[in-house]
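INFO  loader      accepted 1 record
INFO  loader      residues=173
INFO  predictor   begin
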Amino acid sequence: MRIHDKEFELFISSEQISMAVSQTAATLNKQLTGKTPLFIIILNGAYIFGADLTRQFEGNCTVSFSRIKSYHGTSSGDVSEFSGFENEVNGRHIVLVEDIVDTGKTLFHLLHELEQFRPAGITTVALLQKNILRPNLLKADIVGFEIPDVFVVGYGLDYDGAGRNLKDVWKVI
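INFO  predictor   done
INFO  writer      dumping tokens
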């Protein structure tokens, strides 16, 4: 498949994604029994993952969104945009929902921002996490897939605005 100037091949099928989402939800259901967490879905990339995940959460919860930008083309860089948090996070159990953990810069930024509000706890969840050495050593608490250092699109992830709507995850070739 071609998107803009790059060729992509199927990497993770929608069936595999569905199973990973169910496993992630089951873990959260177990960990957060009796709690009313605030799910903060990081836009734009995690919108599909976050929707699928929160629909499988069995308890009461609140859903909120925050926007952060660090990708430019196919490269992850410094955080260039951050919208803050819509809901009160002080004393809440937070589930931070990310599409992908790459360099860890966005996760570091988000955790730093959240910790200022003294939440009761923070669980970080990512659909994808690149299996690379990060300078800050940050990793998500719950990960759907560990992947090599490849550029991917689909299931919410994009390449310069295109490919978010794909039901599978595709990698550049």
